[in-house]
Amino acid sequence: MTRPNTIIYILLLLACGITYTACNKTGDGRNPCLEPRRYFLVMQTCSPADTGSAGVALKLPSPIVGYVDTNIWFADGRAAASEFVGPLSGVVDSTRWFVIPDTNNKAAMDTIVFYYTRKPVFLSTACGYTMQYSLYDISTTLNVIDSARIEKTEVNNANDVIHVKVFY
Amino acid sequence: MLKYFTSILLLAASFSTFAQEEESDEQRTVIVDSAHQLRLGFDVSKILFNQLQKDKQKGAGYELELDYYHRKDMYFVLEGGWGSGALTYNDLAYESDNIFFRAGINKSLLPRLKQNDWDMAFIGLRYGIGFINRGDANYTITDSTWGVVSGTVPGTSLNAHWIELTGGVRVEVAHNVFLGWNMRGKFLLNGKKFTELPPYYIAGYGKGEKNSIFDFNVFLSYAIRWDKKPEHIKK
């Protein structure tokens, strides 16, 4: 049968449990999103290799790279670079970038159009959804650029991946 | 010589005591196991838990427990309940509801001393299954450059399977009325099914996004008892 002390212990433990549960609630309850919410395309500029088709990374002297339809660029010509990382549009199925290899010669500009399919992917209840892209075609003007090709089709924030190579 | 004689006497006495204890244990088991007990409990902590929900993320549930005293401090346990969950953020909104069942055993760590001693501190094991309906999910992806994309993911039906390790106490606070708590460690067995838009809250388990969960119940229970037939206890 039950002793009075036992009931007191039970109630104390019950109070501790309720306190523990209550103290684990956070402000608005939603956890912070700790992972990238946008997936970026990585483009590398190359010169043709002597053998094979891999190409050799070619640093453009002072490149400006950005969206054709906006005033936004993600390489501003301050430093030589051969890799350019930029977002694709999650609203439409193609995105146009412009590439100016040298700020001193802005006439030498090319545009590159990336064609892709979009797929919303669930990240977490903290982050919601993001858009994943699957490249299927690419076209470019040939003002300075020689050619371009898709290396990896899936744009999903995988590490050490080059999605597109552009040859000069 | 006297030393050896004393030793033999003490040894014999201890054997005798051991034999008596064994017999006593057997008798006690027969006495305490001479009645059936069926106990129905309701998790009263969920009433408080359901009131503590935030506006934009809600999980509510109700839990019932039925246990039956088998013998030798062992109980068969069947639990069940129902509940719902909802997320209503600007970029993600969906609802779900489910029912669940759990089955398992409790083993009391405090041997019953007499027939009317039903207080217990126990450990137990459960298998749980939840039958979940997740409604359509509306999502919005905001692109700072290009604008906003919205869409809907169709609803679906899912099953969740999990195991639990549990422990707790039950104390008879009034005649046939028990109060007690359970702590539970829960481990989702088919977590891979819940990587794509898991239900925010699965009644009986917890947050669908987590593969392991700690949970707490407070049960208020009522027991009914009846005696076993004498021939069942004469062995």
Uncertain segments of chain A are 22-26
Total strands of chain B = 12
Number of helical stretches of at least 4 residues of chain A: 1
Q: SSE order of chain B in H/E notation? A: HEHEEEEEEEEEEEH
Unreliable runs of chain B: 1-21
Oligomerization state of this entry? heterodimer
Biggest sheet of chain A, strands in spatial order? 4-3-6-7-8-10
* Radius of gyration computed on alpha carbons of chain A: 26 Å
Describe the protein in words:
The complex is a heterodimer of chains A (168) and B (235). Chain A has one helix at residues 4-23, and strands at residues 40-47, 56-57, 64-67, 73-76, 83-87, 94-100, 110-124, 128-140, 147-150, 154-155, 164-167. In chain A, a hairpin with an 8-residue loop joins strand 1 (40-47) and strand 2 (56-57). In chain A, the strands form two sheets. In chain A, strands 4-3-6-7-8-10 form a six-stranded antiparallel beta sheet, with no helix packed on it. In chain A, strands 1, 2, 5, 9 and 11 form a five-stranded mixed beta sheet that branches. With 168 residues, chain A is mainly beta. Chain A starts with a helix and ends with a strand. Chain A is built from one helix and eleven strands, in the order H-E-E-E-E-E-E-E-E-E-E-E. Chain B is α+β, with helices and mostly antiparallel strands. The radius of gyration of chain B is 26 Å and the shape is elongated. In chain B, strands 1-2-3-4-5-8-9-12 form an eight-stranded antiparallel barrel. A two-stranded antiparallel ribbon of chain B has the order 10-11. Helices cover 18% and strands 58% of the residues of chain B. In chain B, a hairpin with a 3-residue loop joins strand 10 and strand 11 (206-207). Chain B has helices spanning 2-32, 45-51, 230-233; strands at 35-43, 57-71, 74-88, 92-108, 120-134, 137-143, 147-153, 156-174, 177-188, 201-202, 206-207, 212-227. Residues 1-21 of chain B have low confidence and may be disordered. Chain B starts with a helix and ends with a helix. Chain B has three helices and twelve strands. The A-B interface holds A 1-2, 6-7, 10, 13-14, 17-18, 20-22, 25, 28-30, 38, 67, 70, 72, 87, 89-92, 118, 120, 122, 124-125, 128-131 and B 45, 48-49, 52, 54, 56-57, 87, 89, 91-92, 116-117, 119, 139-141, 143, 145-149, 151, 153, 169, 171-173, 179-181, 183, 195-198, 200, 209, 216, 218.
